[in-house]
Amino acid sequence: MKVLLGDLDEQVLQAQAQILKQGKILLGDWLQKANEEGGLEQAIDWLLGNDADRYFNNNRHNLAVQMIRSITQEYEIRDEHLDDPYEAARIWFKLK
Q: What value does the mean pLDDT of the chain take?
């Protein structure tokens, strides 16, 4: 049984990595579109603000929304060392 659980743990970790990768792609695509339309700063402000928190909380039953919330939290941790959250988003999400 221990071997089976170890295999399950490995599969769960791989699935989580894939889910987070997909979330970063999804959020990056959304931010890229906002950037192309001249609204990157507004999108980042929304993402880091109370409106996004309400959106995440109101849709907590949706796995895709939770995926985006997790990516947003990772981004917030990584952007702390840069003074400009917009530049941090451009770097982390590889925006053009």
A: 90
- The per-residue pLDDT for range 44-90, each reduced to its tens digit, is 999 999 999 999 999 999 999 999 999 999 888 876 777 888 988 99
The DSSP letter of residue 83 is: S
* Long-range contacts formed by 88-94: CB under 8 A, 24+ apart: 89/31, 89/40, 89/44, 90/35, 90/40, 93/24, 93/27, 93/28, 93/31, 93/32, 94/28
Residue identified by tokens 């507004």 is 42
Say what the pTM is: 0.84
**Residue 91 three-state SS:** helix
Q: Give me 12's structure tokens.
A: 């769960």
